[in-house]
C-alpha cells in the first residue's frame, strides 16, 4: 500500500453530484445481483484518484467486492473501515411508475440528484 499522490480534497459539489449521478445510472438491482458493472466503475474511479483498488470475486465471482486502501497507516492510530452497498432493491411493483433510471441515466440538477425509486 502506498500513499496516493493525486487524492483531491477540492472536489466541487457539481463533481460530487455528477459522480452520484453516474453511480445511480447503473442497473445494480438485487436480486438478481447486477453489481459487477458498478463495482468496476468504482474501482476504476478510485484508481484514477490514486487509490489502490481491487475487485475481489468473493463470495460470488459475478458480484465482486471493491476493496481499497489509502495511505500507509499509523499503527498507533488504528484502522478505519468504510463499508457500503453497490446494489439496490427492486421497485415495489413492476408498474410502480417511471423512474429516472428508466430513461437510461440520472440527471444532476443543481446539487440535487434525481435517482430511481425503490
Tell me, briefly, the overall form: globular
Q: Helical region count?
A: 2
Arithmetic mean pLDDT: 75
Give the strand tally: 4
Biggest sheet overview: 2 strands, antiparallel
Biggest sheet strand order reads 1-2
The total number of structural domains is 1
* Class from helix and strand fractions: alpha+beta
Q: Give the terminus-to-terminus CA distance.
A: 38 Å
Helix/strand order, N-terminal first: HHEEEE
Uncertain segments are 98-106
Instruction: Kindly state the percentage of residues in helix.
Output: 10-25%
Q: Radius of gyration, rounded?
A: 16 Å
Strand content: 5-15%
Short description:
The protein is α+β, with helices and mostly antiparallel strands and 118 residues long.
Summary tags:
118 residues; alpha+beta; two-stranded antiparallel ribbon; 2 helices; 4 strands; 12% strand
Could you explain how this protein is built, in words?
This protein has two helices and four strands. With 118 residues, it is α+β, with helices and mostly antiparallel strands. It has one domain. A hairpin with a 2-residue loop joins strand 3 and strand 4 (112-113). The protein starts with 12 loop residues before the first helix and ends in a 5-residue tail after the last strand. Residues 98-106 have low confidence and may be disordered.
Tell me the layout of helices and strands.
Elements: H1 13-24, H2 36-48, E1 52-56, E2 65-69, E3 108-109, E4 112-113
Antiparallel strand pairs: 1-2, 3-4
